[in-house]
Amino acid sequence: MYSSEADIELADFAPHLIEWQRTHGRHDLPWQRSRDPYRIWLSEIMLQQTRVSTVIPYYLRFLKRFPNIHELASASIDDVMALWSGLGYYARARNLYQCAQRIVQQYGGAFPKTIEQLVLLPGIGRSTAAAISAFAFGVCSPILDGNVKRVLARMFGIDGFPGGKQVETAMWNLAESLLPTASKKPHNICSCDSALVEPIVAYTQGLMDLGATLCVRSNPNCDCCPFMHVCVAHLTGRQCELPVARPKKAMPTRQTVLLILRSANWVLLEKRASSGIWGGLWSLPNAPDVDKLAARAAQLSGTPVALTPLAPLTHTFTHFRLEIEIRLAQLSDELRATVSNVYADTTAWVQLDAIGEYGLPAPVRKILDMLS
Q: Which of 90, 152, 149 is nearest to 123 (CA)?
């Protein structure tokens, strides 16, 4: 599955990586200042498919509003989604909230200390569980996120799409074999002051740092890599080929029409279902086409209303592209007052200068910002 050219360095991989991380790795990230599993878990969930520079301000705002897991578990989902708004991949926020409640209910607010228990919680997969366990409890177990897959694919010349079952299984086995031997032990707990903790923390962080700062997706900085002399991709000039990209499929396109129902400085927001696109967020009422939107606007307004087209926009998700048409309908204050409580459970009239208090999808926030 991988080239034997790097095998001569296999036993030295962990010691070299640990040494490099201690000297050249990142040490000032806000979640590195604590062994608190709550803070580590929060950072790991936010960092899934999101850059560190984007995560940091969200992380700090979350900690200020929810300094511990009890505060998060007792909050409303709307408070959580509002703070998450703009970070994307909103299922993470819903899972975060559900996970906090589960930990409080089942474990009294104390994080479970084994990977086997962690992976049973919402939003925590094998790699995330291993990272939490390493940083919080000193558990030695491999991680395999996107950055690590890229590092391993290049360093060991692994062909095949890393998301494919066979290739991914081989990568997990390789990642297991590379763990620092001084830290290898049953997946249980050791004291945070133990001499065995620091190697696995530095090793795990080193893998993340290597993938995030040097072995990046485009234009990797091979000259500064501690493994340049044994990296198969570098030695064979295959940095651009590895890891093998996901097999290309045509990006499907979907359409929707959004309604801006406005009265002076007020706009109507509608709570979306907890699952599906923008699940649990507040958004603008929508319909699949203009005719259905006109009927929806009349329903919400209590009377037929004129719809004015605004400039359309396109929003790209991971697996599809959403083409958005926008229609504006103006209501008088008197009419707004008569219909304001008709759908009170699922809608809310919000002043434009207060939309920041609601969890909104990024394109909806962009549309409403243009109205302010």
A: 90
